[in-house]
Amino acid sequence: MYIETPAPPHTAWPEQALCAETGADFFFPEPGSSVREAKRICGMCAMRSACLEYALANDERFGVWGGLSEKERLRLRRAHQQT
């Protein structure tokens, strides 16, 4: 018999995200450092969209969230405000 597992609550995504298993150094690099590795990890993460949604809703201004850098999230916010 197959029993469907309910989707995790919206607030549970941080514990299930790949970044929880990785050091924060990748996601909050020193200014001028590459975010390539953080974006690679985000690209494999099933929680990526929940993470990005959280970052946008909470105006996270630093680090890589949902696979996007600070500048990329700012561009996304501005584009959304213009529509």
TrEMBL record:
Binds 1 [4Fe-4S] cluster per subunit. Following nitrosylation of the [4Fe-4S] cluster binds 1 [4Fe-8(NO)] cluster per subunit. Residues 18-75 form the 4Fe-4S Wbl-type domain. Upon Fe-S cluster removal intramolecular disulfide bonds are formed. It is found in: Cytoplasm. [4Fe-4S] cluster binds at C19, C42, C45, C51. Acts as a transcriptional regulator. Probably redox-responsive. The apo- but not holo-form probably binds DNA. The keyword Metal-binding applies. This is Transcriptional regulator WhiB. Coiled coil: none annotated. Belongs to the WhiB family. One of its GO terms (biological process) is cell redox homeostasis. It comes from the Bacteria. One of its GO terms (cellular component) is cytoplasm. Its cofactor is [4Fe-4S] cluster. Keywords: 4Fe-4S, Cytoplasm, Disulfide bond, DNA-binding, Iron, Iron-sulfur, Metal-binding, Transcription, Transcription regulation. Its main location: cytoplasm. The lineage of its organism: Bacteria, Bacillati, Actinomycetota, Actinomycetes, Kitasatosporales. InterPro entries: 4FE4S_WBL (IPR034768), Whib (IPR003482). GO terms for molecular function: 4 iron, 4 sulfur cluster binding; dinitrosyl-iron complex binding; DNA binding; metal ion binding; protein-disulfide reductase [NAD(P)H] activity.
